[in-house]
C-alpha cells in the first residue's frame, strides 16, 4: 500500500480530493516503479488539485506533474534499482498517475537520471517550473540573444517559473527586468538578481501596435494582455518566449511587432519536450543553479497539505517554489 493524493469525480459532476492509501496493484502500467521522495506544486498541479482548470484528463487521478525518487523495479535497460531519477511532464498527473504519491510507475523514457551535482530536494525545488525556465533561456540563446543584446524582461517574476528565470538569466550575465503584480516583493526580486522591478500594471492596458522598443528578450508566463504589451515593446529582432497563461489564454495583439521589428515569438512546452532535450536542460540547471538562492525561494509542505496549498498558490498567496515532502 502507498499514500497518494487522489482526485475523483463526484456524482454531481464536480471533483473531490483526498489523501488515500492505494494498493501497489492499482499503479498504472509502465516499465519503471519509483519510490518517490519529493514532489512539487506547480501552477498546473494547483489547477488539478482544486479543479479550477481542466488539467485532469483521466479519472480517477493521482496528480503531480513532477517527482524525484529512487527506482525500485525496472523492466528497462535504461534504469537500475537504486538509481535516482526525475519525472517531469509527459502527461504525469494529467493522463497518467503522477508524483504526489509515495509510489509512481511510468514508461522508462519519461525519466531522466538525476544529474550529477543536483540533490533530489533541489531537483524538486526546481521542478517543472525551473525546467520550463531553463527551456525558455535555451530558446532565447538559440535565437541569438546574448547578454550584450540588451535588457531581458521576465513576467510573473515572483512565481515559480519567473523566479527561476530571473536567477538563471542573472547568473548568465543578462540585465534582468522583473515584472510583478506585487511591487512589495521588490527586495525578493533584487536578491534573485533583477536589475529593475516594474509593476505589472504598466503591461495590462491595451497596447498600441508598437510601443517604445525596450527589451531584447523576454520570458512571459502571463499570456493575455501582458504578452501583447511585451511583444509591442520589444527591440528590433527581439525574442519572446511564451510559456504560460497566468493572465489569460487570449493574445490581443497585432502583427506589427513581428513584421515591422522582426520580433520572434517562441512557444515553450515542457510536457512533450523530447527526452534528449530534457537530459540537456536538467544538466544545464545542475550547472547553473545557485542552490542557496534556490533554497531561499522554496518552502516545503507535507503531502497532506498539498490541496490547501494549491488554493493559496492560485489565489496569489505563495511565491517562489513549493516542494512537497513525501514521507
Ligand atoms: P506560479 O503561480 O508560481 O506563478 C505565476 C505568477 O504569475 C504569479 O506568481 C504572478 O506573479 C503572475 N500572475 C498571477 N496572476 C496574473 C495575472 N492575472 N496576470 C499576469 N500575471 C499574473 O505559477 P508557475 O510559475 O508555476 O507557472 C506560471 C505559468 O506558466 C502558468 O500559467 C503555468 O501554467 C505556465 N507553465 C507552463 C509550462 C509549459 O510547459 N508551457 C510549464 C510550467 C508552467 P507576480 O505576482 O510576480 O506578477
UniProtKB/TrEMBL annotation:
<dbReference type="InterPro" id="IPR020843">
    <property type="entry name" value="ER"/>
</dbReference>
<dbReference type="Pfam" id="PF00107">
    <property type="entry name" value="ADH_zinc_N"/>
</dbReference>
<dbReference type="InterPro" id="IPR036291">
    <property type="entry name" value="NAD(P)-bd_dom_sf"/>
</dbReference>
<dbReference type="GO" id="GO:0043957">
    <property type="term" value="F:acryloyl-CoA reductase (NADPH) activity"/>
</dbReference>
<dbReference type="InterPro" id="IPR013149">
    <property type="entry name" value="ADH-like_C"/>
</dbReference>
<dbReference type="InterPro" id="IPR011032">
    <property type="entry name" value="GroES-like_sf"/>
</dbReference>
<protein>
    <submittedName>
        <fullName>Oxidoreductase</fullName>
    </submittedName>
</protein>
<dbReference type="InterPro" id="IPR013154">
    <property type="entry name" value="ADH-like_N"/>
</dbReference>
<dbReference type="Pfam" id="PF08240">
    <property type="entry name" value="ADH_N"/>
</dbReference>
<feature type="domain" description="Enoyl reductase (ER)">
    <location>
        <begin position="13"/>
        <end position="324"/>
    </location>
</feature>
<dbReference type="InterPro" id="IPR051397">
    <property type="entry name" value="Zn-ADH-like_protein"/>
</dbReference>
<dbReference type="InterPro" id="IPR014188">
    <property type="entry name" value="Acrylyl-CoA_reductase_AcuI"/>
</dbReference>
Amino acid at each position: 500500500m502507498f499514500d497518494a493524493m487522489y482526485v475523483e469525480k463526484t456524482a454531481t459532476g464536480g471533483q473531490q480530493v483526498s489523501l488515500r492509501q492505494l494498493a501497489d496493484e492499482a499503479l498504472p502500467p509502465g516499465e519503471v516503479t519509483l519510490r518517490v521522495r519529493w514532489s512539487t506544486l506547480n501552477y498546473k498541479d494547483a489547477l488539478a488539485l482544486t479543479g479550477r482548470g481542466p488539467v485532469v484528463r483521466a479519472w480517477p487521478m493521482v496528480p503531480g506533474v513532477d517527482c524525484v525518487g529512487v527506482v525500485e523495479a525496472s523492466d528497462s535497460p535504461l534504469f537500475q534499482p537504486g538509481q535516482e531519477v526525475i519525472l517531469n511532464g509527459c502527461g504525469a498527473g494529467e493522463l497518467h498517475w503522477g508524483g504526489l504519491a509515495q509510489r509512481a510507475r511510468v514508461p522508462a523514457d519519461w525519466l531522466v537520471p538525476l544529474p550529477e551535482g543536483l540533490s533530489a530536494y533541489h531537483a524538486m525545488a526546481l521542478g517543472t517550473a525551473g525546467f520550463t525556465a531553463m527551456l525558455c533561456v535555451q530558446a532565447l540563446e538559440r535565437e541569438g540573444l546574448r547578454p550584450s543584446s540588451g535588457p531581458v524582461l521576465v513576467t510573473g517574476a515572483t512565481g515559480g517559473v519567473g523566479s527561476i528565470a530571473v536567477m538563471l538569466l542573472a547568473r548568465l550575465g543578462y540585465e534582468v527586468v522583473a515584472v510583478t503584480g506585487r511591487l512589495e516583493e521588490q527586495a525578493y526580486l533584487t536578491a534573485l538578481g533583477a536589475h529593475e522591478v516594474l509593476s505589472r500594471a504598466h503591461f495590462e492596458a491595451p497596447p498600441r501596435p508598437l510601443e517604445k522598443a525596450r527589451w531584447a528578450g523576454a520570458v512571459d508566463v502571463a499570456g493575455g494582455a501582458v504578452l501583447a504589451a511585451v511583444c509591442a515593446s520589444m527591440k528590433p529582432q527581439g525574442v519572446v518566449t511564451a510559456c504560460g497563461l497566468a493572465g489569460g489564454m487570449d493574445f490581443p495583439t497585432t502583427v506589427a511587432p513581428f513584421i515591422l521589428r522582426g520580433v520572434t515569438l517562441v512557444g515553450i512546452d515542457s510536457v512533450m519536450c523530447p527526452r534528449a532535450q530534457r537530459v540537456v536542460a536538467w544538466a544545464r540547471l545542475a550547472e547553473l543553479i545557485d542552490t542557496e538562492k534556490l533554497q531561499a525561494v522554496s518552502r516545503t509542505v507535507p503531502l497532506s497539505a498539498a490541496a490547501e496549498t494549491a488554493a493559496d498558490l492560485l489565489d496569489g498567496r505563495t511565491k517562489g517554489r513549493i516542494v512537497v515532502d513525501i514521507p
